[in-house]
Amino acid sequence: MSRRYWIACGLLIGTGLLGVVLVCLFPPEHFDQDGQLIGEMPPEFGFALALVWLGLLGALAGAAALGTIRLWRWQRGKKRRRGRERLPGAGSCPAKTSRVAPLTDRSNKP
């Protein structure tokens, strides 16, 4: 997936969280017909939360798509390799496999 997708999801989450914080810090005043202050949740807060949810759902869908693609590619590669299994030790170079220095006797015997 392209980086633009992840950037868009991050922008949705960030914009929504900023909107939620701003609505909590500076609540809009909505009045009814009599001039009384309404004590309900402001629609701006709901819209900001919807932006956060859209960003989170987009990120979750993208992660699921990447996992599914990776699993599909792994399974496809596993089926291809099944017919071409190599014998153990065939084609390996013994000089390159042993890079560890031999153990020396480090006992303090006089």
Can you give me a brief rundown of this structure?
61% of the residues lie in helices and 0% in strands. The chain has helices spanning 3-25, 43-82, 94-97.
In words, what does this structure look like?
Helix 1 packs antiparallel against helix 2. The protein is 61% helix and 0% strand. The protein has a domain at 3-30 and 40-80. It has 110 residues and is mostly helical. The mean pLDDT is 80.
Task: Please render the helix and strand layout as text.
Blueprint: H1 3-25, H2 43-82, H3 94-97
**What's the total helix number?**
3
**Main β-sheet, in a few words?**
none
Helicity, as a percent range: 55-70%
The whole-number mean of residue pLDDT values reads 80
Extract low-pLDDT stretches: none
